[in-house]
Amino acid sequence: MNCSKQLLRRQFLHQRRSLAIDLWQSQSELLGDRLIECPQFIAAQTILAYQSCRQEPSLDYLFTHTDKQWGLPRCVEGELMWHRWQTSAGLVAGRYGIREPDPKAPSLIPGDIDLMLVPAVAIDRDGYRLGYGGGYYDRLRADPLWRKIPTIGIVFDFAYVDRLPIEPWDLPLDAVCTELGVTTSRGNAPTF
């Protein structure tokens, strides 16, 4: 594994965990407001999202303030399996302690999805994502059917940086959303 990625990951995770809870909540809500204003989000019916862990930006505001259909992942044998989810449905503790939908919840396939909100430790201006190192989203997006789905990376502004180290298998996200707004990644068509 790239040593500079490991060091950057530790630094950004430390900075994120250092946020006071009230600041984390208010920045998460601001981020949600920015997404709600985004044309791609407005047009989407079914959106893949995530449950916040390690003080990632929380999407709870979106779950309770929009009428979208949501999909959440389960980690199964090194892959992400997506299921329909609504706020009234419970969640179970999954791998890594991340809350997941019930395995019996209806599955989602790429053709069901209009937009994917992708968590990250950091994202650069070209749309390249620094994740946690497990490769779950890299493997998912390596599949051409999943790669067709528009993506918006989700980070706080301090983790939206000029450049990150990249690997040959890394694929850029289409856009990035922070509490300051939604920005199309450099080199991507301005569809947002």
What's the layout of helices and strands?
Elements: H1 3-17, H2 21-37, H3 39-43, E1 46-48, H4 60-65, E2 69-76, E3 79-85, E4 91-93, E5 99-101, E6 115-119, E7 122-124, E8 129-130, H5 136-142, H6 144-147, E9 151-154, E10 160-161, E11 175-178, E12 181-184
Parallel strand pairs: 1-2, 1-6, 6-9, 7-10, 9-11
Antiparallel strand pairs: 2-3, 4-5, 7-8, 11-12
Notes on the protein architecture:
This protein is an alpha/beta fold. It has 6 helices and 12 strands. The protein has a 7-stranded mixed sheet with strand order 3-2-1-6-9-11-12, with helices on both faces. β1, α4 and β2 form a beta-alpha-beta unit. The radius of gyration is 15 Å and the shape is globular. The model has no long low-confidence stretch (mean pLDDT 90).
List keywords for this structure.
three-stranded mixed beta sheet, 6 helices, 12 strands, alpha/beta, 192 residues, 28% helix
